[in-house]
């Protein structure tokens, strides 16, 4: 019994470490029409897969006090939005979508990526 507990806690520790180093950085999600992104120490998720020929509505909710994150910029779409704390802000991206584009905070410290596919 003790052995099982030791083995299990070892496993959890490994999974935890793995998650800490690799899990946080890139989270990808596919969006058909709408998607919600939490802004908290970065963008979650930070890889958005969208449909090439469709408009997509991205709703951002900022939960991070860091004032740099109050600006949200989509350089390829020439969009700049202000994100107040805890208030959803919706950005609509309309085709033509670049195959890959990015969005980032005011000083480009935090980034997200948008991939358009068929
Ligand atoms: Cu920043």
UniProtKB/TrEMBL annotation:
EfeO-type cupredoxin-like domain ranges (all copies): 14-114
UniProt keyword annotation of Metal-binding present: no
This protein's UniProt keywords: Membrane, Transmembrane, Transmembrane helix
Residues passing through the membrane, by range: 6-22
Coiled coil: none
Keyword Nucleotidyltransferase: no
Protein known as: EfeO-type cupredoxin-like domain-containing protein
Organism whose genome encodes this protein: Candidatus Gottesmanbacteria bacterium GW2011_GWB1_43_11
Upper classification of the organism: Bacteria, Candidatus Gottesmaniibacteriota
